[in-house]
Amino acid sequence: MDLVKALEDRYKKPEIPEMNIGDTVRVSVKVKEGNRERIQAFDGTIIAKKHGGINETITVRRVSYNVGCEKVFPIHSPIISSIQVLRRGKVRRAKLYYLRDRVGKAAKTKEKI
Prior knowledge:
By secondary structure, this protein is mainly beta. The protein has 1 helix and 7 strands. The protein has one domain: SH3 type barrels (Roll), CATH 2.30.30. It has a 5-stranded antiparallel beta sheet, with no helix packed on it. It has a two-stranded antiparallel sheet with strand order 6-7.
């Protein structure tokens, strides 16, 4: 098991901020278009965290133009350039799948002070 742990530690990102369910985050993703590469930001609320270690993923949801969009981001992937926590959310659940049915202000989480 030490060999697996050593291999995982080599590929983990050390600068990941502490984030929890309900937080609003900005995930900067490297997008490759032809021979060019640029960074695109995806702002949204974390509705789920899964797995652990090098396989850890977060599901981020945002609503733009009245259409909900969810993306699953592997945290330690080389495609993710940075993750920035914009605001802390105060929630009492581990998964916020109920936000999929909510629209407008009802889809917001309270801010942790």
